[in-house]
Amino acid sequence: MDKAASQSGLTLSDLSVYRRSGEKLLQVNAHVLPGRTLTIMGPSGIGKSTLLAAITGTLSPDFRCSGSVRLNDRELMQVPPEKRRLGILFQDHLLFPHFSVAQNLAFGLPPRTKHRRARVEQALEDIDLKGFASRDPASLSGGQRARVALMRMLLSEPEALLLDEAFSRLDQDLRARMRRLVFAKAEQAQLPVIMVTHDQEDAEAAAGDILRFPPPLAT
Amino acid sequence: MPETDHPRMGRPTKGPAFFPTLTLLFLLGPVLAGLLGTLLPSFGLLRPSGAAAFSLEPWTALAEWPGLARSLWLSLKTGVIATLIAFVLAVLLVAGWQGTRWFKVAHGLLSPLLSLPHTAAALGLAFLIAPSGWVARLMSPWATGWNRPPDILVLNDPGGWSLIFGLVLKELPFLLLMLIATLPQLQVRDRTNVATALGYGAVLGWCLTVLPGAYRQTRLPVYAVLAYAISNVDMALILGPTAPPVLSIQILNAMNDPDLGLRAPAAAAALLQLVLVLVALIIWKAGEVAGATCVQALLWRGARGNSLAFRALKPIGLSTVTATAVLLFSGLLAHFLWSVTGRWRFPDVLPQSFKTRTWDRAGEDLLFTGFTTVSLAFLVAVVALALVIGCLETEHRRGRAMGTGGVLILYIPLILPQISFLPGLQILLLLAGVNHGIWPVAVAHLVFVLPYVFLTLAGPFRAWDRRLATVASALGHSQQSILWRVKLPMMLAPILIAIAIGMAVSVGQYLPTLLASGGRVETLTTEAIALASGGNRREIGVWAITLTFAAWIPFLFAYALPALMFRNRKGMTNG
Ligand SMILES: Nc1ncnc2c1ncn2[C@@H]1O[C@H](COP(=O)(O)OP(=O)(O)O)[C@@H](O)[C@H]1O
Ligand SMILES: [Mg+2]
């Protein structure tokens, strides 16, 4: 514990999620270094999304969790979700439909950010969407939406990244590009990443540790 | 079990649930107080004179009311028959036509009629079927030979048939839309396709494969309709028999009588009305069993429902539902014509001359009453909205949806007859000396507005994608910020619809307005009903049209505003 506490990165110690009935879904012990990726794979319904919800602090009351989550020396379990500084991406990108593209990005900026408009303009340029500020998110292509969701998350200055099958709705070509973009940004900001995926290629591209559920039988 | 149990979202999940408690208080407080205020006087307690001793005297006095037995029978008969007819017709339409273009047309026609106030519907029907009404005019003199209005009793007939007619017209749209609302969850197309492939006719196939599931979900609305049909005052005052009237009218007359001695037997009668509704519900339950047995019997006999009799059911469904819409709209048109009529001789189908004097004369009065009505409705709807959003947000944060018990509680004010507890509430308000002004009326309206607002918003709020909250909180936003900046804006359309529905419910209330204010707060509904007995058709027309628009205009805003505000947001228009 002391050793983990002195490390930067994201540390899950005996993090377990249970159904309310008490049945245990998953238990994870892991340490993810800044800029590295932990890949979690397993059949659907096994509890991967639930595990990520335990990390973000948005676990539905149908579940419980125990164990600890440490992020750069902060213990997160008692911290409300909006103060945890974790970014999460889902496969549906989940842009807010009532906001414009720019408003979606501005929604991610921390409260005391200066020059908010300029920051949003710059962010749009970064993801090759210059001129898209006032667009309706529903009018974007899947790839564009994914980029906006990624940028919105990065603008909130997270200290770690969680990806819940974030690439699975994109077609092959787009998927590879989006993956490179996400990992490049994580590397650049030195963020630890936990990626949940079904896709072997995703796992290979991440080039980090892989946790498989259920664990392969020991031979 | 986990050793450490971390609080979810870093917040305590226990503690007083402020909004649900307050909502429950506003929903059931007046009902329970009213029941108590009915129960005590009916056993000799809580008398206006101050004397109080347990006695059965109110009941013996009640037993001597003229025509009591006949009143009881009339209430039961009109209520059960009207509900049965409306329900069967609704089923026939959905079973025979669902998925067709005709069905869409019928649906579109009936939707606005759902929020047509009962009073306006009843007055409209009265305009049509009165001896000098439109129907008689259309048939005279060529078919009937009448050159002057015949002296026959169509309205207020002693058998209560015009009341039944009016109840069917008004409740058919409601039951139909309730039935339609259950369909998306029932894989209707798959089920009926299987039935068709097995050789079943449309109506029987639907009744065998879809109806059981659909009925399970419409049961409570059906009970509410049944209870209303048996115990309503507004439609019965306009269309119902008079000598004797249905029980609810007898109670109302006794409550309004200057002789305070009639209050105690009236309270006893109000309890009797409650028993009558329970009896009707038991009869209906028995009918459910009988109906299910019939359907089962058809199944085992191998009936396919292709016989002529079954095939005839299909056109009956469509034609009666269309006729319902046509009649209700014609009633409104008749209101409007009368409101601008100068001279309109019998058997002419249209007025000879027009004038706006009736409107001019009603002018200020109409404006003031209309303003009172609409602002009261808006106030009540917004309070209901705040309570309901508070409840649904509490539910969301605790992750516990209210169970079937909660839904039952919502239906209590809709199933308990108004006439059984509002007189008691009036007695209590009188004793407490707070029977003045708009506030007691607002509280009484809230009881009936809350359930509709809740039932309207619960679906969209519960269907809201929780992951949006996860994303927003990961972006650093608190639960308050998520509620105000994400969830509520996304819910704008259902919220405005809920306000419009709540306002329509409030605008249409007769008894709560009358009793909670001791007759001192006048709304468009109470005025229209007061005019009904006078028989000045021009004035009735003016007030009924205004009443209808007071109930409808909020829907215009509810549909137009989100379309306008989110005209550039495609993601907001289809959900
Ligand atoms: N809100 C919920 N209430 C109850 N059970 C749920 C809820 N959400 C998911 N589940 C169940 O919990 C299990 C884990 O779900 P999830 O974490 O989404 O799995 P995964 O992401 O691995 O596919 C599944 O069996 C799923 O059916
Ligand atoms: Mg999942």
TrEMBL record, chain A:
It holds the Pfam family ABC_tran. The gene is cysA_1. This is Sulfate/thiosulfate import ATP-binding protein CysA. Residues 10-219 form the ABC transporter domain. GO terms for molecular function: ATP binding; ATP hydrolysis activity. Its EC number is 3.6.3.25. Gene3D superfamilies: P-loop containing nucleotide triphosphate hydrolases. It comes from the Bacteria. Keywords: ATP-binding, Hydrolase, Nucleotide-binding, Transport. InterPro entries: AAA+_ATPase, ABC_SmlMolc_Importer, ABC_transporter-like_ATP-bd, P-loop_NTPase. It is an enzyme of class 3 (hydrolase). The keyword Cytoplasm does not apply.
UniProtKB/TrEMBL annotation, chain B:
It is a multi-pass membrane protein. Residues 68-284, 368-565 form the ABC transmembrane type-1 domain. GO terms for cellular component: plasma membrane. GO terms for biological process: transmembrane transport. It comes from the Bacteria. Gene3D superfamilies: MetI-like. The chain crosses the membrane at residues 72-97, 109-130, 160-182, 194-214, 220-239, 260-283, 316-338, 366-392, 404-432, 438-458, 491-511, 540-561. It is found in: Cell membrane. Keywords: Cell membrane, Membrane, Transmembrane, Transmembrane helix, Transport. Belongs to the binding-protein-dependent transport system permease family. This is Inner membrane ABC transporter permease protein YnjC. The lineage of its organism: Bacteria, Pseudomonadati, Pseudomonadota, Alphaproteobacteria, Rhodobacterales.
